[in-house]
Amino acid sequence: MTEVLTPRVVESPDQFTARLRARMHSPLCGLMPSMGFLQRQRGAPRLMVAGGELTGVHVLRGLPAPKIGAYHIGGYGLRPFESHIRTLGEVVERYGGYLAPVSGHFPIRYASVAELRAAGEQCDAGPAAPYTAEQYARPGFPFRPYRDDDVLGWVRATRLRDGSDCWVPAQLLLVGYVVQDHRGEPWVAPAVSTGTASHTDPDKAALNALEEMVQIDAALSHWYGGGRSARIAHDARTAALQRVLHEAFDPLGDRPEFHLLPSADLPGFTVACLIRSRDGRLPAVAVGLGIDGGLERAMYRALLEAAGVRGLATWSTLQQRFERRETVTDDIFDLESNVSYAATPEGARVVDARFAACDDVSADDLPPDDDRPAGVRARALIKAFHATGKRLYAADFTTVDVADLGFVVARFWSPDLVTLPLPSAPAAAHERFAAYGGFRRHDPHPYP
Question: Is the model's pTM score more than 0.90?
Fold first, then answer.
């Protein structure tokens, strides 16, 4: 029997990103109206740092146009493909999150917890008071606890323990949701994109979103809690990363340092990379995070993000100088001023002091890598959530135009993990800190 071979065109990574960018990048009608790159400073790592802007989703919410860089969209890498695809992927992720409230797939119901329970509906609003009484009493503190008779906006999500529908607060699941204060809805906590990820592979989108939740929980619980990090010493296990560092970093310039931030009870390697300035130039320090089932991959991801955070710190510092603004050290309620503060000598001392409380460990002495397929690892991570008594909810933020690009956008939320807080508003009363030695400090975190 004669076998008929069907030809298949294989695109190179650069060809794929060029084709995708041609469909997404347009100042008139693209998901990404602009994209740019940061110029490398003297002594900085030789990594490409790209940034992109998101189309005018603010119009759909009746809000003013945000300032440049407000959506924190960026991509980093050794090669153009890496920085391009990460930037395009983050544009898709943010777009899915901000379109969800107006997409029609998440109709919002306004009711109180008491009303939903009286109607026999399943609902989960998370912690009623994630902040302490002292925090709520501070002048200008933006959040307040909810009561069972407060009206909240609710959307349906899938409770993964049993696959049932459950009402969860729209303001905590949908990044693009606008709190309806004219209805008396309290602002309970900030919605962040943590737990949202886009990818052309649904399994990888789910895994990336779930791992990001674990990463932020471990990193913020370390920063505000009582745990210690483990400074990683290079050995044969990190040989490939060492070659990257040799090529990308000037021997007399900035140098990276890697710390393992262990999760209290969830799998994966969460790594923080600190890039410090050797000669006193700003930024004095930048901290990036990475997570993966493989240690070296997690370290590489942390390195790339640290390079991006370093670029953000440089950009923010220049903006402050042009606008003649002082560096904010107190009441930081955005995710840029904290990065600028960490970049100053004063802020760097706070970062250095926190990471000085560490143990030293060789990479070879850490647990083995988990190299199973993405779908297997995602399902194992969901089982780990449930095995440790954590609630976990899921939603699909994939819009029609996102699907047409070949992407899916996965969204997960767990009220039992610490999420990325506004730097001067950590959820100090969250029960999760008990697993990390309790809540210890209010210093603003350095993560964007």
Answer: yes
Structural contact between residues 313 and 342, judged by C-beta atoms closer than 8 angstroms = yes
State how far the Cα of 268 lies from the Cα of 370, in Å rounded to an integer.
8
311 and 319 Cβ atoms separated by less than 8 Å:
no
SS3 of the chain: CCCCCCCCCCCCHHHHHHHHHHHHECCCCCCECCEEECCCCCCCCCCEEEEECCCCHHHHCCCCCCCCCCCCCEEEECCHHHHHHHHHHHHHHHHHHHHHHHCCCCCCEEEEHHHHHHCCCCECCCCCCCCCHHHHHCCCCCCCCCCCCCEEEEEEEEECCCCEEEEEEHHHHCCCCCCCHHHCCCCCCCCCCCCEEEECCHHHHHHHHHHHHHHHHHHHHHHHCCCCEEEEECCHHHHHHHHHHHHHCCCCCCEEEEEECCCCCCCCEEEEEEEECCCCCCCCEEEEEEEECCHHHHHHHHHHHHHHHHHHHHHHHHHHHHHCCCCCCCCCCCCCHHHHHHHCHHHHHHHHHHHHCEEEEEHHHCCCCCCCCHHHHHHHHHHHHHHCCCCCEEEECCCHHHHHCCCEEEEEECCCCCCCCCCCCCCCCCHHHHHHCCCCCCCCCCCC
Report yes or no: 207 and 301 within 8 Å, Cβ to Cβ.
no
List, for residues 5-50, the tens digit of each pLDDT value: 666 666 788 899 999 999 999 998 899 999 988 877 777 888 888 9
Instruction: Please give the Cα distance from 345 to 68 (Å, whole number).
Output: 26
Cα 254 from chain centroid (whole Å): 25
Backbone angles phi, psi at 131, to 5 degrees: -110, 160
